[in-house]
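Practice problem: Prepilin-type N-terminal cleavage/methylation domain-containing protein
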Amino acid sequence: MRIAEAGFSLLEMLIALAVGAILMVSVGRFLPLLLEQNLRLQQRVQLQQELQQLSHTLQKALQRAGYCRGQCSGPALTLAAGGSCVLLRWDENSNGRWEDVGSSDSDFYGYRLRSGQLEMQRAVDSCNGNGWERLTDPAFLTIEHFNVVRQGTRLVLHLTGRAGAQSLQVEHWVEGRNL
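Answer key — structure tokens:
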């Protein structure tokens, strides 16, 4: 009695290899596209997080502007350069006065857009000069637009940022409680 041997013929193996090769070529074409889309999505999410963090920092500063637990004189908020530079004062240590620019406890703060970067400085009463600190990473993020518009005690904050090919705009309304 002879037992039939089970297995694939040479022709069946060649067909299976051809089908497998076609599938591998198809997958090879779509993999770079998937990786590129994944990179774009990661950039967009990181851009959104960066702009939200910057926006939150600016909103807190704008809400604090004008706070004083005593007799403070001078403007609490100054918008310069078409709103792309914001100078603020608030009584951070609650001692009843705004410490001047020359003091180590100065209550003067500034935020400005310069060369595609958002910058901040404490103890500043002008949008010019050196010593400003970047709040953004120029290797990843470029701020294309920063603007604050005052409408009474309401402030409108506009931020537009770019990371690679991704661009995102954020707008927030802030109530200046102490203005």
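Discussion: The mean pLDDT is 91. Students who identified this feature from the tokens alone can consider the problem solved.
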